[in-house]
Amino acid sequence: MGSRAELTRALLAGRTAARAEQPMTACPHPPRTLLRTAWLRGYGQAAEPAE
Question: Can you give the pLDDT at residue 16?
Fold first, then answer.
């Protein structure tokens, strides 16, 4: 699973990866885990255009 702190770190790491233009496949977490979900959510948030 993952603690709240770990999930937050994963989310922020995903945002950082997107801003650094790393591929989405760079996610370091295994498939079907909450940490991967958080990382991908962060990646998606950073990839969306700002309004």
Answer: 96
